[in-house]
């Protein structure tokens, strides 16, 4: 059930993008359709709005104007990892597919220990494990900048920016896992994790959240074209109906 | 020299948009081509990325999904004005043109006293005054969210969000005034003002800044298609060449 795209010619690229984006584009801002994932780049924060992957089984991106690029030097000494949005491990069908996940458009500053190398990595592995047993798997990933109440009672969005290019450090990341278990039988899981060290003992399930929480703060709708009546489980729980 | 668009039929709208955007689109995210101005809406911050106007002489925008709308109630009691990006006074050619500047997509939370009602208003009036004597005037306006260094030595972007829809309060606003004085003779002025009360005694010229400062933080290029050799003045100073 895993089609072989290794031999896909360049002419087929647009149809690969439409496969990946089958259930709707969250938005169209600065789209990049790479060989094996589709990304919308936020030139203001120097990191993506979202990245979408479709599974069936470090270099600057020169296509972005230099004003808006993030570069390795921005991350260097910042204390943050260059965290992948589309995970490298999901795109092993060709060397160039793997390479493209290392483009800096696909990176976000992530806390290393306790996040990128730990809990976030667990989530990526969990997604990959589920993908092995599904007909089709779609993964949408992105950064979030959530407000917090301060002592004056007002809400503020606050995030660090790093390097000469002021790359934004997201406060949170989301990942939405859409699994087609059997034809017309979908399961969907919405995760939101803080960009902080997370103790190993905390279960992944504690980061499940309602879609609206992600959608409102991200500023786009997720898999809006997915037929709702074919979704049999949301956040690991059966839906009597939808 | 002021063409009469009052009788422009709906069929002409696309060509009006291309007139307005003659020197390049800063971006294509959630574009709205209104009768007399063009706007790119940022669904994450609930206020525009930018608004572009071309001069020759308050209701929610239902075209935006409700998750991403800002509403009058968001502004109510916040202490901020609903500040126009495209100024109402620039679009008096028809009632519907004026009305469209009151759409909430065209609003940003602005400090009232000392800013929206004062220095920012001065800048709008100044632009209008200059437009009266130019063949064509293009005005690009938008919000900015600039980082500041905190006590820990790191840079942070911090801005308030208001109301149930978390409408972002920009830290600064920019306005770029492009005047075609005579055919092939352009003048351009780049302004950046803090969203704060500004004393009347401060001259508008003290807010002139280099284009790169706006472009880097806004995340887009401004009037990128303008032939540089036709620009005779930048920030009120002659350019020997460009
Ligand atoms: Mg990683
Ligand atoms: Mg105003």
UniProtKB/TrEMBL annotation, chains A, B:
EC number: 3.1.30.-
Superkingdom of the source species: Eukaryota
Name recorded for this polypeptide: Endonuclease
Lineage of the organism: Eukaryota, Metazoa, Ecdysozoa, Nematoda, Chromadorea
Domain called DNA/RNA non-specific endonuclease/pyrophosphatase/phosphodiesterase: residue spans: 33-229
Organism this protein belongs to: Caenorhabditis auriculariae
Record keywords: Endonuclease, Hydrolase, Magnesium, Metal-binding, Nuclease
Residue positions of the active site: 84 (proton acceptor)
GO annotation (BP), single: apoptotic DNA fragmentation
Domain ENPP1-3/EXOG-like endonuclease/phosphodiesterase: 34-229
Binding of Mg(2+), residues: 116
Included range, full protein: 52 to 293 of 293
Family: Belongs to the DNA/RNA non-specific endonuclease family.
Gene Ontology molecular function terms on file: metal ion binding; nucleic acid binding; RNA endonuclease activity; single-stranded DNA endodeoxyribonuclease activity
